């Protein structure tokens, strides 16, 4: 097994932009194009306006996917689902700080199940509000659009939060993965990497590309 160092750029293909009638084919396409993870966006129509997919789709995806499944829970009180998502094949689970009554308990639950622990913040949520949780997580997801939909434009005002998190991680020796999600393409990738992000989620840019491998390479460069 290849272990990715935390400073390598990790590319996570967001299945929200896949062809749902050919999900297995698109999982294979992402793997063959050089992606590292598959990003699985769960939306409940409450925490975010839209509803995407959930447990039955995760089960089918896990059965065919060769890449780790990186589950992004855009769900109110995600702790209700964590054990089931872990059992169905999530390699990592990311919850939103804004969605949890008890953030630390949700993070500890993910850890107790042996999955990678992620904590996400929406564009308007400050880094200050999650500093107390950083020793419980492997990864922080800085949303670079308002969560809920693929295909939106990157919000440059989120860049100072990426820089602040990388600084805190370095100062405290936390070695955090910093993930970005929303509007990531060949242009914005270099900007977020320069700011300190090392895990890049990309949906519409990758799945609409005629040559997905070239698109993946353009995110890594
Ligand atoms: C949005 C989702 C994203 C989405 C990104 O709320 O969390 O993962 O699929 O899509 P793009 O890359 O098209 O902005
Ligand atoms: Zn996402």
Summarize the structure.
By secondary structure, this protein is of the alpha/beta class.
Specify the CATH architecture.
Answer: Alpha-Beta Barrel
Bound chemical compounds: D-xylitol-5-phosphate, zinc ion
Q: Note the gap between the termini.
A: 24 Å
Quote the CATH topology: TIM Barrel
CATH C-level category: Alpha Beta
Alpha-beta content class: alpha/beta
Approximate shape: globular
- Report the helical percentage: 25-40%
Low-pLDDT residue intervals, each spanning 5 or more residues: none
Number of domains: 1
CATH homolog superfamily: Aldolase class I
**Helix count from the secondary structure assignment:** 8
- Average pLDDT rating: 97
* SSE string, helices as H and strands as E: EHEHEHEHEEHEHEHH
Number of E-state strands: 8
Strand content: 15-25%
Tell me about this structure.
It is a single chain. The chain is α/β, with parallel strands linked by helices and 221 residues long. It has one domain: TIM Barrel. The chain is built from eight helices and eight strands; from the N terminus they run βαβαβαβαββαβαβαα. The chain has helices at 23-32, 55-64, 82-88, 103-112, 159-172, 188-195, 204-207, 212-220; strands at 10-14, 37-43, 69-74, 92-96, 116-121, 139-143, 177-181, 199-202. It has an eight-stranded parallel beta barrel with strand order 1-2-3-4-5-6-7-8, surrounded by five helices. α6 links the parallel β7 and β8. The chain is globular and about 40 Å long. The two termini are 24 Å apart. The model has no long low-confidence stretch (mean pLDDT 97). The structure holds D-xylitol-5-phosphate and zinc ion (ZN). D-xylitol-5-phosphate is lined by residues 14, 16-17, 39, 41, 72, 145, 147-152, 181-184, 201-205.
């Amino acid at each position: 097994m290849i272990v990715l160092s935390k400073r390598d750029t990790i590319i996570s293909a967001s299945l929200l932009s896949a062809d749902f009638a050919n999900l297995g084919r698109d999982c294979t396409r992402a793997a063959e194009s050089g992606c590292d993870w598959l990003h699985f966006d769960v939306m409940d129509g409450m925490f975010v306006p839209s509803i995407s997919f959930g447990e039955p789709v995760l089960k089918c995806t896990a059965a065919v996917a060769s890449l780790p499944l990186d589950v992004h829970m855009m769900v109110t009180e995600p702790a209700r689902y964590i054990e089931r998502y872990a059992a169905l094949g999530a390699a990592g689970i990311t919850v939103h700080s804004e969605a949890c009554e008890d953030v630390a308990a949700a993070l500890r639950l993910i850890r107790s199940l042996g999955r990678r622990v992620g904590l996400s913040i929406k564009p308007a949520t400050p880094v200050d509000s999650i500093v107390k949780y950083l020793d419980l997580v492997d990864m922080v997801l800085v949303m670079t659009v308002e969560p809920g939909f693929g295909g939106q434009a990157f919000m440059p005002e989120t860049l100072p939060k990426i820089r602040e998190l990388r600084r805190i991680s370095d100062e405290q020796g936390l070695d955090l993965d910093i993930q970005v999600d929303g509007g990531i393409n060949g242009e914005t990738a270099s900007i977020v990497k320069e700011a300190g992000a090392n895990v890049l989620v990309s949906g519409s840019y990758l799945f609409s590309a005629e040559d997905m491998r070239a698109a993946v390479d353009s995110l890594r460069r």
